[in-house]
């Protein structure tokens, strides 16, 4: 797979209530008072990306916090052979680039809009000033880092010791947990991206979904909608 070129067609927009809304939905900021959000908002600018456009790419300088306001962004890496490995999928309120806020570095992955997307950006020097002025943001960042580290360690553990059936079942359970154990799951990614995330192929995902359905754990409503019939059984596959 060839490395895509970074597209420079993003639209820089003036600070508006859109940016305020963008900042306010992020967990590390949503505890702040309105006047504090207004102060941060003054340092935020937004960019719009069409589906398929790259937001940043591996090897480029990393000095910005990226917050997804609308749309969807996938973070992925490419192997030496060009195979894409999905690292995460970002939805509105999610952010990336946080590690670069503390150290000068380059991006280790690619970020691509998988739908028309608007992203809010805060530069490193502005963000560091806010950390000094509002220590609570630092504590929230540490909480976020801890959660991401735990998620990453769980994912590595699943990959190391679990088969594809179990990895898929655990993913579905975790997806349901994040939405208060809803019976109807809306997959946030395509089967191809899900396969990349779970370290397998789209064909294997389709077969394993069919197997889980045959065993009475789920019912496939459509390619992206699944009804969970047996949470307990799905948790111990």
From TrEMBL:
Coiled coil: none
Residue ranges of domain HTH crp-type in the record: 162-232
GO cellular component: cytosol
InterPro entries linked to this entry: cNMP-bd_dom (IPR000595), cNMP-bd_dom_sf (IPR018490), Env_Response_Regulators (IPR050397), HTH_CRP (IPR012318), RmlC-like_jellyroll (IPR014710), Tscrpt_reg_HTH_Crp-type_CS (IPR018335), WH-like_DNA-bd_sf (IPR036388), WH_DNA-bd_sf (IPR036390)
Any single Pfam family the record assigns to this protein: cNMP_binding
Keyword field contains DNA-binding: yes
Stretches assigned to the Cyclic nucleotide-binding domain: 28-148
The keyword Transcription is assigned to this record: yes
A Gene Ontology molecular function term of the record: DNA-binding transcription factor activity
Domain of life of the source: Bacteria
Keywords: Activator, DNA-binding, Transcription, Transcription regulation
SUPFAM superfamilies listed in its UniProt record: cAMP-binding domain-like, Winged helix' DNA-binding domain
Protein's UniProt name: CRP/FNR family transcriptional regulator
Organism expressing this protein natively: Sinobaca qinghaiensis
């Amino acid at each position: 797979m060839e490395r895509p070129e970074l597209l420079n067609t993003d639209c820089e927009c003036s600070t508006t209530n859109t940016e305020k809304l963008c900042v306010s939905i992020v967990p590390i900021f949503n505890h702040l008072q309105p006047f504090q959000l207004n102060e941060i908002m003054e340092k935020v600018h937004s960019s719009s990306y069409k589906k398929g456009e790259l937001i940043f790419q591996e090897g480029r300088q990393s000095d910005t916090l990226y917050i997804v306001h609308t749309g969807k962004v996938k973070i992925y890496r490419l192997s030496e052979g060009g195979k894409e490995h999905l690292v995460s999928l970002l939805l509105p309120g999610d952010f990336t680039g946080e590690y670069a806020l503390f150290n000068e570095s380059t991006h280790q992955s690619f970020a691509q809009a998988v739908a028309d997307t608007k992203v809010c950006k805060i530069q490193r020097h502005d963000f560091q000033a806010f950390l000094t002025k509002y220590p609570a943001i630092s504590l929230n960042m540490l909480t976020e880092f801890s959660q991401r580290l735990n998620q990453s360690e769980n994912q590595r553990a699943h990959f190391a010791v679990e088969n594809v059936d179990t990895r898929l079942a655990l993913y579905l359970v975790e997806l349901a947990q994040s939405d208060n154990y809803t019976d109807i799951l809306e997959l946030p990614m395509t089967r191809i991206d899900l396969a990349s995330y779970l370290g397998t192929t789209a064909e294997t995902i389709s077969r394993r979904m069919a197997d889980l359905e045959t065993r009475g754990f789920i019912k496939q409503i459509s390619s992206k909608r699944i009804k969970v019939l047996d949470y307990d059984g799905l948790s111990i596959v």
